[in-house]
# Entry
Amino acid sequence: MSLSASHTALSQGSVADVWRLWSHVEDWPKWDSSIETSTLQPDSAFGLNGACVVSLKGTPDPITLRITDYVLHKSFTTKSTSPLGTVSLAHELAPLENGTQITHTATFDATNAHTQQIFETTVWTGLTQGLTAAVNSLAQLAVPKKKKRELEESKTAEPAQEKTNKTASLSTSYTAFSKGSVADVWARWSDVANWSKWDMSLRISSLKGFQPFQQGSTCVLVTHGNPNPIDALITELTPNASYTTTSQTDLGVVAIHHKVCATDGGVHITHTATFEPKNEEMKHIFESKIWPQLSQGLNASVERLAEVSQPT
# Structure
């Protein structure tokens, strides 16, 4: 029984810039606003088998995070254990031509079904929202001041198309465990008319022109608070495994990837949302006005889908 969620952001800082912020444990509160204080244990180093002591805002007892995986300038993982289960936080870097891709992944392995329910209802939502905010903040903080000035100056000098090509995308992912089978989940996915039973952001959903649920077909979606229908083209589909929908908007392209994998006692369901903006201005509008609600809705829909896919 486990829960998993990840968030990826692109930074125009280098791998070394991000690693510096990660390795200075005492400065973690600068990019993770959920942390009050953080420090390495005495006689402990930032490396494999090291231990960090973290005090979270609103929580009186400090938490010990043990570094269980460590690859210099690439990744590290921390684990903490409580009576409810174990929380793992994986941190990964990937160099890009114009910066660095940063991914943080949170995984919770519950002691039993009861403790998973407690953790889901009292901790998980806040943890995943904090994870998303922390990665976004880290991506911004990792850009050196000199480079920030250069980027600001270049905005007025670069052609609009060139700026558009350099605009970073947004991505977030959420995974939940269900006691249902792959067939149970696929039955919910392929029943487009009833998507609103697990995605509460939808008011109406249907396949255009009585098309079958297959690659190349178009889903028509009407969300709450928006009277205008949205066309979501199925751009990838592997029966009983995954499918992806893509929507063209005035701000950019939204893609939602859906994946199901069999595991012990059930399945893992993962939904990943990616936004490719037309330019930096469109990204700012989407990130500030739409992205938070989209991310929260994605998390909630996966949880609801996991619930309704379980045998009654």
Remarks:
- The first strand starts at residue 2 and ends at 11.
- The chain has two domains: 2-150, 174-308.
- The helical segments are 15-23, 113-141, 145-155, 160-166, 182-190, 280-289, 291-308.
- The radius of gyration is 21 Å.
